[in-house]
């Protein structure tokens, strides 16, 4: 029996891990111990995903959150190392690009325990993003690099990673979307609570540091979203805790138009409903860009670059830099996005990425 120690801590990681953990649980030769670093800790940023997606409760809850990047990562290194030393796993499994990912990968590699990285090879080529640093360093020390797309595989090959370490398994988020997407209809749930009709609203999410940490940029985004909501159609915006804190401290919450519906972060199934029945998605989230595509909805990404380049090439995703601070550009992009007729593409595998990962880890 091989023991896998999974280190996770942030919302998208719970979602990605849910399908892989199910496959590991079904395998007779793999055993999984889950460590939750505590990076995301609110019930609606953490517990709801374990419940809705049927995940096992983590054996370890480290409760590490807040503080600057160095402090948070440092505390994680100390505590994750203790767990790894006591559990002595055969493999440490990490997801994505957060501080929890990097902490798990660094601890394991220094203890000579092989690291498996799900969502390897993604690059924005913007080293100012904390996520980009976490990805590059994690990939560098990983033994198994599970890539979601061909472009991610190519990035690793270009960086000199051996072909034999790269496994292009597809995107685990596509697996999750296929498994749960079909269950969600337009009836009830959050659409019912907000009295919204399918295809008569836009969904927005904003949480990247580059958009929330700069006052002018965040203010510009709020003005642009208010203008879209007033002139085109209502916007539902589940607000990430980081963004909420920033909106509060800038005094922007009061000025927001009533057509811009701010709600607390929602669970995965409510999010699927909001995505599936929206007419357009406006986001800076990596995962939400792809989920829009999975549910056949065009997307505008408020960033200068994206890791999911194939969606831009096919016309599913349009990049609009919020730094231009230009409401007109965003409004125009929204009109264009709503009318978009993107090409049919299948870049994310066939919905069996999690099964492939569990087989390869045997
Ligand atoms: N998500 C959610 N509720 C929300 C906002 C997002 O369930 O209120 C989900 C979304 O469906 C996707 C994931 O969280 O699966 C994306 O996470 P996030 O945007 O926090 O991070 P990123 O993908 O940018 O790393």
From TrEMBL:
<comment type="similarity">
    <text>Belongs to the UDP-N-acetylglucosamine 2-epimerase family.</text>
</comment>
<dbReference type="GO" id="GO:0016853">
    <property type="term" value="F:isomerase activity"/>
</dbReference>
<feature type="domain" description="UDP-N-acetylglucosamine 2-epimerase">
    <location>
        <begin position="24"/>
        <end position="361"/>
    </location>
</feature>
<dbReference type="InterPro" id="IPR029767">
    <property type="entry name" value="WecB-like"/>
</dbReference>
<dbReference type="Pfam" id="PF02350">
    <property type="entry name" value="Epimerase_2"/>
</dbReference>
<protein>
    <submittedName>
        <fullName>UDP-N-acetylglucosamine 2-epimerase (Non-hydrolyzing)</fullName>
    </submittedName>
</protein>
<keyword id="KW-0413">Isomerase</keyword>
<dbReference type="InterPro" id="IPR003331">
    <property type="entry name" value="UDP_GlcNAc_Epimerase_2_dom"/>
</dbReference>
């Amino acid at each position: 029996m091989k023991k896998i120690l999974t280190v996770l801590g942030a919302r998208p990681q719970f979602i990605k891990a849910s399908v892989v953990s199910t496959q590991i649980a079904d395998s007779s030769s793999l055993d999984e111990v889950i460590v939750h670093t505590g990076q995301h800790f609110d019930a609606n940023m953490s517990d709801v995903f374990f419940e809705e997606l049927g995940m096992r409760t983590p054996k370890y809850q480290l409760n590490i959150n807040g503080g600057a990047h160095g402090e948070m990562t440092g505390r994680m290194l100390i505590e994750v190392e203790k767990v790894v030393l006591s559990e002595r796993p055969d493999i440490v499994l990490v997801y994505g690009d957060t501080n929890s990912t990097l902490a798990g990968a660094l601890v394991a590699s220094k203890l000579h325990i092989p690291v498996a990285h799900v969502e390897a090879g993604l690059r924005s080529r913007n080293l100012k993003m904390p996520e980009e640093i976490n990805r590059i360093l994690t990939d560098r020390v990983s033994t198994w690099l599970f890539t979601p797309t061909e472009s991610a595989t190519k990035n690793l090959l270009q960086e000199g990673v051996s072909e034999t370490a790269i496994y292009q398994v597809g995107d685990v988020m596509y697996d999750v979307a296929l498994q749960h997407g079909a269950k969600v209809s337009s009836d009830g749930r959050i659409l019912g609570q907000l009295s919204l009709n399918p295809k008569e609203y836009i969904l927005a999410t904003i949480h990247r540091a580059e958009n929330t940490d700069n006052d002018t940029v965040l203010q510009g985004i709020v003005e642009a979203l208010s203008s879209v909501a007033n002139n085109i159609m209502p916007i539902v915006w589940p607000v990430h805790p980081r963004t909420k804190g920033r909106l509060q401290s800038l005094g922007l919450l009061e000025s927001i138009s009533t057509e811009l519906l701010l709600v607390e972060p929602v669970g995965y199934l409510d999010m699927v409903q909001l995505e599936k029945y929206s007419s357009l998605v406006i986001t800076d989230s990596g995962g939400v860009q792809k989920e829009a595509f999975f549910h056949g909805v065009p997307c505008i990404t408020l960033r200068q670059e994206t890791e999911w380049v194939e969606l831009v090439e096919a016309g599913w995703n349009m990049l609009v830099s919020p730094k231009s601070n230009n409401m007109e550009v965003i409004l125009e992009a929204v009109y264009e996005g709503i009318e978009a007729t993107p090409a049919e593409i299948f870049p994310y595998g066939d919905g069996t990425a999690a099964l492939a990962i569990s087989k390869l880890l045997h």
